[in-house]
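Posting for a labmate who doesn't have an account.
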Amino acid sequence: QFKWIKDNPEKAGVRMGEQLAKAIMQDQLNSAIRAAVAAFTGIGVAVVHDGTAAVLDRTGLVDAAFKFGDRQSALNCWVTHSKPMADIYKGNLANAEQLFNIGTVSVSQDGMGRIMVMTDSDDLVSIDAGGVGIHHYHTLGLVQGAITVEDNGTLDLNEDTSNGDENIKSTIQAEYDFNLGLKGISWDKASGGAAPNDAAIAASANWDQVATDVKDTAGVMITTL
């Protein structure tokens, strides 16, 4: 296409590089979320608040945060899907719980000044196991250093050109690897393998709590409608 419009074909490489960088960052983010959801699910009620009877609100965030008891102030951010975030906003607009006001709109955080990070990662959504199509949303409350992602700098690109079709076809395939760790939780290599795929990362049985106290782990989770 760059040839057709008389532009420098090298610019195509720049565009592909930009797309690849974004895709890698997205993959790393999704893998980190996938791992946290799996690990917290495996630990269970000690770090997971069941809010599936209602949508997300600040009361639910407080209930989830106090899974850490007197250490709940260590939680410094929430990672949530846009749907629960919209529910939080709608609760604020209803002005039922007032912390701060600007004009007629109630503007608030969770009461502890924690920021909320919104991303529509598929790993923050689960569908009811009964097959009735009910979506539940996971919101993660994370401590400092909860999840570590380290790129190994092993990006490899391979270009292949093939004939036989109407047009000459060129494809580029890339691969890379990175390290992923959760605070107070270890990867069970015997169960999940040394180079896990997405399904293995999402399996709770492959993550083991190694910290004696859950307050020394990566954080908490609340599941809502």
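Reply:
Got it, the structure tokens are right above this. DSSP finds five helices and 14 strands in the chain.
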